[in-house]
Amino acid sequence: MFFTVLSLGLFPDSATGQKQEFLLKDQLQRSIVIPARAEHILSLQPEITRLLLALGAADRLVGVDYFIHRNDHLFKLIHPAGADLPVVSQPDGSVNKEMIARLAPDLIFLSPTEQQVPDAIERSLGIPVAALASMGRFSGLLEELELVGRLVGKEERARELVHYFREKVRVISETIGALEETERPKTYLAFWSSLIRTPVFYDPVTVAGGQNVADRLLPSRLGTASAVINLEQIIKWNPDVILIHGSYPPRERRVTVEGILADRRLGSVRAIKDRQVHYTLGFWYWWDPAGVLVETLYLARLFHPEKFSALDLGREGEAIYEKFYGRTGIFRALMKILEFDEWTSK
Amino acid sequence: MSIRVKDLVFSHKNFSLEVSDFSFDSGKVTVIVGPNGAGKTTFLKCLGAVLSIPKNAVMIDGQDLAVLKARERARLISYVPQEQDSAFNYSVGDFVLMGRAGYLSPFALPSKQDFAAANEALDYVGLRRFAERSIGELSSGERRLVLIARALAQNSDILLMDEPTTFLDPKHETEVLNLVRKLAGERKKTILVALHSLEMAVVYSDVLVFMKQGKIVASGPPAEIFEARLLENVYEMKIRVIDWDGRKVVIR
Amino acid sequence: MSGQANSRQKILTIVILSLPFILFLFSLAIGTYDISPGKVIRTIASVWHPHSRQDLIAPYRDILFRIRIPRLLLAMAIGAALSVSGASLQALFKNPLVNEYILGISSGAAFGAALSLVFLGRAFPPQIAAFFFALLAVGAVLLISGRTESHFISLLLTGIIVTAFFSALLSLVEFFASPYVLQSLFFWLMGSLSLASWKDLSISLPLIGVGLSVLLLLRWRLNVLSLSDEEARSLGIHLRREKLLVIGAATLVTAAGTSVVGIIGWIGFIIPHLVRLMFGVDNRRVIPMSAVMGASVMLVADDLIRGLSSFEIPIGIFTSLVGIPLFLLLLKKTKKVWL
């Protein structure tokens, strides 16, 4: 699995001595020269788009991708003007090059897992393309936040948010305290609408005091975000908890809590016997920084209820979303869309 | 077993076959000769309903061949093609066994009876010892005999043979034609053979039929009709026929 | 063929016929979850003699009866279905290189199943649409290329065109499908046995059974059908009816299989080849032996997938990895040519 390796070197402009460009190494191991400041950003990576919103730099967006326009639950709630932004990509991963040329961004962000080849786009359009994603790691997310903050001249705000994020995580960790391996509930993540597809790295689980049973599957070098395992492996792991990718709208969920509880193949698994099968947010084309924090809180309470008995998830959620996006009611809206009664029932 | 042809018409591209009225004698060997493209093969194929024919054009014992079911047809008439080029190298025995298809429903496997018929057919053509060999190993003469054996296994009263002796050496040519005569004599089969060789046609036929440009231009016992003027007419070249040792020989 | 070779063939036949059963039993003990052969036996026996520690063997029971056995059955069914359909189509089209993939049957079935899954949901059996479009595909090939006796190149080209057409249609379906449905299509399109459950099998297995039975019954008839159309007709075959029967049955088994596992392309070509090398070209033997060999090869391939890693690797890769060396080995050994 990748570490988000962003090595930033600064190339001083020889004439004026000012910082003009960065050398960035993205997740596809490409070294890209990007401008120090980007006025026009084309974000085809919803995670980055959400960071831009959080930084208050939505005005720098010249265009977005199909996913955040069509499928994201919160984009138009947080940024109503975003509905009018040009949509440059399509579900099959292709991009409209002419449109990009017309929009003339300084920088394009992509997901490293998309099919379109960043180099080809860069070559044909002459615009730097960076393939970035958190890849399931908090460190990745925060590095992105810092980078984007620097790009749009909102370093202060970026620092504020990074600090807020780290504080929240610290509080969670402290509340949980030191844990033995055996005290961490073994957790299996059934993501991407499939019982057998699981993310190898998912920090929220680890930070919340659990253990992702799949985290030893692949060496980090390989850099894949997900693994397809066979069903027997789940039974072999015998997880205490199963988390289902719940960001899918309730009607569209192929994998459901009821479905897994009723799956007789898995009857011997501890999680099913104890009825510890729950929905979690998971990725929704990578992360929403506010969402993943709330998720971590939810999971902490799930894994160690006795330590988090005082947690009011509803209130915390509202506060976190308000901190990031400056609006109220966002968390409530999300809970309603996804019908996560369990999250806010307490 | 009478074969009666009436208003048989078949067109294909630039060629058309027209036989308005003709009867074949049963139990006899009728040989059809004519230049290339005269329609011999087409005629035979029509007679076997291998090509689609109009209704009432070919009547076998009063039955319209065109409306008979495939299996009934196969039991009446068998057709021996000029060439055989199977994609798969079947054994001789399996190949001859296929002649029994007319006696089996699609889902049936050959019975002991069918095996016996196939073996008997191979015996008759003298190739029983090759039963386990594959078709590809045989010489072309032997392959022709196997084709005939398959037609024999069909146990039909009428056999249609399309140029069974082309490309065969004289020895094998004679072998095949002797077999034909034997079939007519011993087994009382009605045999229609298309031949290239005029000399052989004269010797082996009971009835000789001349075709030209899709029509029958002459027919009758060879002794009566085989003469130079007719030949010149049909083949459009200078021909002389001489008697040699009791046989007719064609000189070009 | 001498008597000695005949008895050699007999032994080979018996060995091959028993292969699926032996492999099946052997495969029960293979999988990510370690279940030793002893435990396998005890677990199966527990059906009749309930075990004292039911809770202990519960995972074994779940895995054996609900995961492994349906998957093994599916593997055998697919292997047999694709091999027999390949062999039958080869006879019908008078060419040993023909298979359900190049005729466009697999692509048509894949498109039909995808269409059904996307627009009619998982509740509706995808086998129906798969069969319909598979028939459409082979019908198109027949219509365009002329007759079953067409020169192989024209048949191949037509098949490629039809396959490309349905692949394009499939892409269109993917394009319009919501990302949610697309995710569930993901595995199925890869060609995988991972989703084998009794529910999927309940429809596909009987369909494959019916189709295989038809082709098995037609096995001698296929010999005659492999002759030229004219010869076949003169031998007493009602060509149109019987060809449709063969094509219908071959398409049915392919479509039923593809609906559940996606496209697995290599089996229908190589297995009949191997069988012909070993047993000759008579379809009375080729058809049943292809079924048996196909089932066995599929089992071996799936065993490798399940046994070697905890990941689900698409089986199409493995069928090639198992089938190709096997073919080369046999070709070298016997030095026989099937033509």
Q: How do you describe this structure in short?
A:
The complex is a heterotrimer of chains A (346), B (252) and C (339). Chain B is α/β, with parallel strands linked by helices.
What would your notes on this structure say?
The complex is a heterotrimer of chains A (346), B (252) and C (339). Helix content of chain A is 38%, strand content 15%. Chain A is built from 15 helices and 13 strands. In chain A, strand 1 and strand 2 form a beta hairpin. Chain A is globular, with a radius of gyration of 20 Å. By secondary structure, chain C is mainly alpha-helical. Chain C is globular, with a radius of gyration of 21 Å. Chains in contact: A-C, B-C. Chains B and C meet through helix 2 and strand 6 of B and helix 9, helix 10 and helix 11 of C.
CATH architecture of the largest domain in chain A: 3-Layer(aba) Sandwich
CATH architecture of chain C: Orthogonal Bundle
What is the distance, rounded to the nearest whole angstrom, between the alpha carbons of the first and last residues of chain A? 36 Å
Mind telling me the CATH class of chain C?
Mainly Alpha
The mean pLDDT of chain A is: 88
**CA distance, first residue to last residue of chain C:** 17 Å
Number of helices of chain A: 15
Rg of chain C computed from alpha carbons, rounded to a whole number of angstroms: 21 Å
Give the ordered list of helices and strands of chain A: EEEEHEHHHEHEHHEEHEEHEHHEHHHH
Task: Specify the CATH class of the largest domain in chain A.
Answer: Alpha Beta
The tally of strands of chain C reads 0
**Arithmetic mean of pLDDT of chain C:** 85
Domains of chain A (count): 2
